[in-house]
Amino acid sequence: MHWSRKLINRLLRYAIVVSTLLMLWKSLVLATNCSRPILVVLSSDGYSFYNLGDLFFVTNYPADPIRTGDVVVFRIEGRFIPIVHRVIRVHEREDGYVKFLTKGDGSQVDDRGLYPVGQLWLEREQIVGKVKGYLPYLGLFVILLSNLPLVDRLLSGVLA
Amino acid sequence: MHSFLSRLNTLFAFTISVLAALTLGVFISTYFEQYHGTVSISANKPIVKHMTDFSANRKKNDLGVLQLDMDMNLNPLFDWNVKQLFLYLTAEYVTPSNSLNQVVLWDKIIQRGENAQLNMRDVATKYYFWDDGDHLRSNNVTLTLAWNIISNAGRLLHVRADGSSSFIFPDEYVTSRGKNSGRE
């Protein structure tokens, strides 16, 4: 075979692998209605039930309301990495406006110190989703990979 | 042919496959488990104060103070896919401004192997019972215990215990500092 055909053949193989993975990920995003359906724990306070490298499966269905005791993934202004904590207060008005307060299982105080100054409550838009499933250790591979230079750029956009 | 690295690779791949199969087995074998349980809860000496919440907006809000009695035996909930139980007691009530209010008053982590039989008398709430406003007086509050089953691998289930209890706060604030029984 001509060398250029070989090269094209090889490139196409890589392209298929990459696009298959991307399609799987995007299908998962659609199926869970969540922008980050799988999360890797990058740091743990040591008191919570999860450890470094555990995987969370997250959904974000509007018909599935968030109540106290739910473990939610939320994102706050100025922090790139989302936080996974438990909801300890819910106040819902007649018109559907809901506000939440969260707290880490291991910490003594609620998360108001983590929220931006002046913010007392989480709102629905800040919540990425609700943790529904849990798989230990598997994310360690991702963390190991992401410690290699360059790979980290490729992965962080999708998983972190 | 069979270099050290290729042997290592095969061994590693085999270990991972076995672990994955076992994990899947553990997950499937407990998939239909309901994790139901019954508890008895009662609230003692509920009072309402009207105070400034310095942790929040510094406005005056209603603060409920009560003591809890709880009895439960949750040892049967532990099967081989339960790593930890997270118990939480939610106070649920309705106010003129909010169609739903949920406040967690108490929680507890029970690890596998720890005693899951609890008999508590006159225990103060672990967290402050602040209302989102001032509507606790004469309000009917329902206390429900629930647990989050934290599995070794699998779902993160939330189960409400059978046996919730309701009480009504008094219709007047407690003002004097001396005679109240709250924790301060």
Automatic annotation (TrEMBL), chain A:
<dbReference type="InterPro" id="IPR001733">
    <property type="entry name" value="Peptidase_S26B"/>
</dbReference>
<dbReference type="GO" id="GO:0005787">
    <property type="term" value="C:signal peptidase complex"/>
</dbReference>
<comment type="function">
    <text>Catalytic component of the signal peptidase complex (SPC) which catalyzes the cleavage of N-terminal signal sequences from nascent proteins as they are translocated into the lumen of the endoplasmic reticulum. Specifically cleaves N-terminal signal peptides that contain a hydrophobic alpha-helix (h-region) shorter than 18-20 amino acids.</text>
</comment>
<dbReference type="GO" id="GO:0006465">
    <property type="term" value="P:signal peptide processing"/>
</dbReference>
<dbReference type="GO" id="GO:0004252">
    <property type="term" value="F:serine-type endopeptidase activity"/>
</dbReference>
<dbReference type="InterPro" id="IPR019533">
    <property type="entry name" value="Peptidase_S26"/>
</dbReference>
<protein>
    <recommendedName>
        <fullName>Signal peptidase complex catalytic subunit SEC11</fullName>
    </recommendedName>
</protein>
TrEMBL record, chain B:
<keyword id="KW-0256">Endoplasmic reticulum</keyword>
<comment type="function">
    <text>Essential component of the signal peptidase complex (SPC) which catalyzes the cleavage of N-terminal signal sequences from nascent proteins as they are translocated into the lumen of the endoplasmic reticulum. Essential for the SPC catalytic activity, possibly by stabilizing and positioning the active center of the complex close to the lumenal surface.</text>
</comment>
<dbReference type="Pfam" id="PF04573">
    <property type="entry name" value="SPC22"/>
</dbReference>
<keyword id="KW-0812">Transmembrane</keyword>
<dbReference type="GO" id="GO:0045047">
    <property type="term" value="P:protein targeting to ER"/>
</dbReference>
<dbReference type="GO" id="GO:0005787">
    <property type="term" value="C:signal peptidase complex"/>
</dbReference>
<keyword id="KW-0735">Signal-anchor</keyword>
<feature type="transmembrane region" description="Helical">
    <location>
        <begin position="12"/>
        <end position="32"/>
    </location>
</feature>
<keyword id="KW-1133">Transmembrane helix</keyword>
<keyword id="KW-0472">Membrane</keyword>
<dbReference type="InterPro" id="IPR007653">
    <property type="entry name" value="SPC3"/>
</dbReference>
<comment type="similarity">
    <text>Belongs to the SPCS3 family.</text>
</comment>
<protein>
    <recommendedName>
        <fullName>Signal peptidase complex subunit 3</fullName>
    </recommendedName>
</protein>
<dbReference type="GO" id="GO:0006465">
    <property type="term" value="P:signal peptide processing"/>
</dbReference>
